[in-house]
Amino acid sequence: MVSLKGDNIYLRALEPEDLEFVFAIENDTSLWALSDTQTPYSRFLIKQYLENAQQDIFEAKQLRLAICDNENQTLGLIDVFDFDIKNKRAGIGILIQNYQNRNRGYGKQALELLVNYCFSTLHLHQVYANISESNVASLKLFESNGFQKIGLKKDWSFDGTMYTNEYILQRINN
């Protein structure tokens, strides 16, 4: 079994106690462009989601884990989405909530742990990420973990005033 614990962080399943943390992230309009969210989520809906979060990845086709530091503070979320067992691939997304916790290596460790889990435990052949052309920090993070830009989706997202491009990055398990 692959460990989901690094030097400074660990990944864990979501708990009912994560309600306010997830609520804050899902309703932070400054983050909506990262996930194509367009409407707020109620505590009721997030509570229902957390109650069903124990659903197996093979059934749900997704997995969301909390990123926690060694003091058990929840720092962010990391997701496996579009889990495709037939083609052995999935997408990955990551978010460190507070700016003061970014650029401290937490995201890098979390991404390394999750990619290792995807390849070693889920036996995936490849993982990918969709990242806005303007999100330089995320592009750097994923590229430092062996992901390669494989395409640019032109005018992919509309931010309310203009269209933006989005890269697709891929890492194949050799």
Automatic annotation (TrEMBL):
GO terms for molecular function: acyltransferase activity, transferring groups other than amino-acyl groups. SUPFAM superfamilies: Acyl-CoA N-acyltransferases (Nat). Coiled coil: none annotated. It comes from Winogradskyella sediminis. Residues 9-170 form the N-acetyltransferase domain. Keywords: Transferase. PANTHER family: GNAT-FAMILY ACETYLTRANSFERASE, SPERMIDINE N(1)-ACETYLTRANSFERASE. It holds the Pfam family Acetyltransf_3. This is Diamine N-acetyltransferase.
